[in-house]
Every structure is written in structure tokens, then in C-alpha cells.
Write a structure and sequence with these properties.
Elements: E1 2-9, H1 13-28, E2 35-42, H2 49-59, E3 63-67, H3 74-87, E4 92-95, H4 107-113, E5 119-123, E6 132-133, H5 137-154, E7 166-169, H6 170-175, H7 187-198, E8 203-207, E9 210-211, H8 222-238
Parallel strand pairs: 1-2, 1-4, 2-3, 5-8, 6-9
Antiparallel strand pairs: 4-7, 5-7
Helix pairs in contact: 1-2, 7-8
Length: 239
């Protein structure tokens, strides 16, 4: 099976330098006969992220980069990455952060469980357990409440609605009109779950431990939170 990990980046030079080799280790050990390819979707990072990726791609043909002219949002970055991968005939499509909040060690677990599902989510709140490292109490409470609120408004029965560590089977992305996705920030994750659920695909979750980023700063902002609240009710009305 051809497996593509799509990673949007903006100022992730140090993280990219470290996480790409960690992922490629699985290709050496032949992880379930799946070779991981990586697509970095970079929004013209001023810190030189793209240059690091280009250097890595010279040594590792599994590493690719998609250059974008400006910072245009998480949702559109993933959509462009998915479209790129669909043209290249990949079978599995992963969403994964570049900052080590999503540990590559869970990739074999994804490969095993995706056989049973169409969309598999790496959940921080699996079966009610909270699994995050180096978050303060306020952030944990806010994230937990946001997920419960998203589940209530959209009706999608997942514990971690805003999770960004995911694996889609090809048929899921082929069936969704990616040009009609209207979320650009973190609400993109909720919308993709909702569209998969609405289309009748089987969604599952596996437990992960979510780690605070190693380098750089979080992209979360007040405007992103406002967009998420508005998008949730837009989905609710379309139900």
C-alpha cells in the first residue's frame, strides 16, 4: 500500500529536521510492507523550512514538498496535499503535525487499525481518558469542552473531534468534494469528520498521548476559535 503523510508547515524548520528522519525509520524496518512518503505543504515559511525539506529530499526520495506563496490556512493546505496525493495514486492519507505533538511511534498502530475503518483518528480523549503532556489545566479544560461541544452540535460520535492525527482511506477523499470544504483553520478537522460521517463511512479512534510541541509557537488564536464556533453551527444547520 502506498501511504502519504501530509504535513502543513509554517516556521517549523527545527521540527522538520527532526521528525522526518523519525518517520523514515519505519521504511527501513518495513512497517507492515507500507512505505511512508511525506509531503510537506509549506506556506512560504520565513524561517527556511522549505530549504530544510529540499535538503532532506535530496537524500530521501520519499520526501516531497509543495510550495505555497503565503500562509493560507490549515484546511487549504491539507486539501492541496490530498489532491496532490490522489493524483499520485496513494492508498492511505495521513494528517500529522510537524511539531512532534503527534508522535511517529503511533504510525504502526494506525496501519493495523485502519483495516477496520475508513477514517481513523488518533484520540487524546479515548474512552473518556485525557492523554496530553505539558498542557496547563486551563488548556486541558478548554480543549475537552470544545470537543464535547463539537460532538453535541454536529452529532458526530467521536471523542476527539478536533484531533489532527488521522488516516483516511483513499475512497473517503475521492467521495468528498474537497472544493466544497469551507473550514480553513482547526475546524477543518471537525468538518472532515462530519462529512465522512454524513457520507456513511466508518470512523474509529485509537488512543494516543498528545505532546506539547518541541519547538516554535502554537498557531491557535482568538480568530481561529471564533471561526470554529461559526463553522460548527453552519454544519448543524446543514444537518
Amino acid at each position: 500500500m502506498k501511504s502519504l503523510i501530509v504535513m502543513p508547515t509554517y516556521n517549523e524548520r527545527e521540527n522538520i529536521r527532526e521528525i522526518v528522519p523519525e518517520i523514515l525509520k519505519f521504511n527501513v524496518t518495513s512497517c507492515d510492507d507500507v512505505i511512508f512518503h511525506i509531503l510537506i505543504v509549506d506556506d512560504n515559511s520565513p524561517d527556511g523550512t522549505a530549504k530544510v525539506v529540499e535538503e532532506l529530499s535530496v537524500k530521501h526520495p520519499e520526501v516531497n514538498i509543495l510550495h505555497r506563496k503565503e500562509k493560507s490556512g490549515l484546511g487549504s493546505a491539507y486539501i492541496e496535499g490530498f489532491k496532490w496525493g490522489l493524483k499520485k495514486d496513494y492508498d492511505l492519507f495521513f494528517e500529522m503535525d510537524a511539531d512532534f505533538s503527534h508522535n511517529p511511534k503511533y504510525l504502526p498502530d494506525f496501519l493495523e487499525k485502519i483495516k477496520e475503518y475508513d477514517l481513523l483518528i488518533g484520540s487524546r480523549y479515548y474512552q473518556g481518558r485525557i492523554s496530553v503532556v505539558n498542557w496547563d489545566f486551563k488548556r486541558v479544560v478548554l480543549s475537552n469542552l470544545a470537543n464535547k461541544y463539537a460532538r453535541m452540535v454536529t452529532g458526530v460520535p467521536v471523542n476527539d473531534a478536533t484531533a489532527g492525527f488521522k488516516c483516511f482511506k483513499r475512497k473517503v477523499l475521492e467521495s468528498i468534494d474537497l472544493d466544497k470544504i469551507y473550514s480553513q483553520a482547526y475546524s477543518f478537522q471537525v468538518e472532515m469528520n462530519w462529512r465522512c460521517y454524513k457520507a456513511g463511512f466508518k470512523i474509529g479512534e485509537i488512543p494516543i498521548i498528545f505532546y506539547e510541541r518541541r519547538h516554535g509557537e502554537s498557531k491557535l488564536s482568538a480568530s481561529i476559535i471564533r471561526e470554529g464556533l461559526w463553522i460548527l453551527w453552519k454544519m448543524r444547520l446543514k444537518r
